[in-house]
Amino acid sequence: MKIQVEQLDLLAPWHAITMRAGYYAVRVTVRLGAIPIGGVFVRPVRTRVVRHDRLRRRIARECGSAIAKLLGLAAVRDVEEVLLSSGVPEPIRGAFVEAHSQRSWPTPGVTVAIYTRDRADVLEACVRSLQQLDYPNFDILVLDNSHDPVPTRERAEKLGVEYIRCLASGAGRARNAAVEQSRSEWIAFLDDDCRPERNWLKELVRAAQDADCRCVCGPVRPAKLESSADIAFAMHGGFPNGFTHRVLTPASLDCSLTRPAPAWRFGSTANLLVHRVFIQLAGGFDVDLANDEEADLFYRAILAGHTVHYTPLAIVAHQRAWTRKSLRHWIRASAGAAAIYHVQRVLRYWDYRSLIELAWHRPLALARALASAIRGRSRYPWSLLLVEFRGMIAGPVTHAAMRLRRLGKSNAAKSQARRPNRKLGATPIPSPDPATLTYGAPPRNPSNRAA
Predict the structure, then answer these.
(1) At what angle do helices 293-303 and 324-349 cross, to 10 degrees?
(2) How far apart are CA 304 and CA 263, in angstroms?
(3) What is the pLDDT of residues 312-325, one digit of tens each?
(4) Model pLDDT for residues 10-28, shown as the tens digit of each residue
(5) Gap between the Cα atoms of 289 and 291, Å rounded
(6) Residues 420-431: pLDDT tens digits?
(7) CB within 8 A of 141, min separation 6: which ones?
(8) How far apart are CA 14 and CA 37, in angstroms?
(9) Which residue among 101, 148, 159, 190 is buried most deeply as judged by most CB within 10 Å?
(10) Within 10 Å of residue 361's Cβ, how many Cβ atoms?
(11) What's the pLDDT tens digit per position in 148-174?
């Protein structure tokens, strides 16, 4: 089961969309120039060609209100009249282009940190796409968590980008190493299997012009839906990929009496811009939140009186091909990290709403989704719902055991350091700080600054 992914710019002449062999539907992302509007699904039946009149009706029905607002139309019913296969007619098109033409804004220095693990070829494709960005002042830094660092290091040297070898496993530790290494005002985080659009970094920085802004995130859209696992990941929610601009403010902490601040799944570290000084003062990413460390960062930002922005204009395409095994592992880890996140809100900040979310809202939502799947009212696999439920229960238990084990090792190390060395008749030399063994970085490469 495959879904073909296409894009359609309503300002330009519409190209013919033909469904390829082996695909059963087409997912069309609708745009007005650089602005994404929404997405529609179409299933060509006979000739496997998406007819323009059918696509026009579908776009007007599902995206009509957003198009009418952007084009300045008096009513939503007028949308279908301007959706011509030759493009939006004049003078509406000219007025839209003039109103949304790019204005200049400050472009501070940015370090783009790419997390990678045993995928040198995928990393090279990501760096090549970054080198085409429309941004004047940025560096590229590779965070290597590979078992064998040689291929990735050689590829980084070939591409002329900076490189950090992260000995301790975990994306959170690698990103914390990037925070210590960087000297730019902002740090943009990206995964090696993501391909940013040319204006990606400029749009992230554009949203950061708010004086109180400390974090900006953007959509991570699937580049392909080639298997049932890819489709299930998209149905699960995947990475955040909404089409509207949103802002988390300190007022979001008290927006509901029974729901916590919506920092969870607001954005993703696969497409994230963070102010360097803020993240240093905040203590970096929480390494215990493997799949939701950005949620903890957003929560601390609004708790400190700052804002977090989500901009739909800073788009990256996610190239990863999911398998059943990798999808189950991701869902279990994500559900466990979400549960740990809510437990931390309760224990650290006494936020009782996270307890309600964890003990009532989330189990109830899973139970309803499971009932719909069992009755055949949902195409989402019920087995994945069970995986998510088990991850939600196991996450806090595993986290507590890990913290106790870490505390035991720390106490044992302190006891060993205080104990005299009877064999040599002297106290042992203290072990170096584990933080200094987390990573090692070569001298910065001055030729890596983009022109």
Answers:
(1) 30
(2) 14
(3) 999 999 998 899 99
(4) 999 999 999 988 898 999 9
(5) 6
(6) 654 444 444 454
(7) 111, 112, 113, 114, 161, 162, 163, 164, 178, 181, 182
(8) 16
(9) 190
(10) 14
(11) 999 999 999 999 999 999 988 889 999
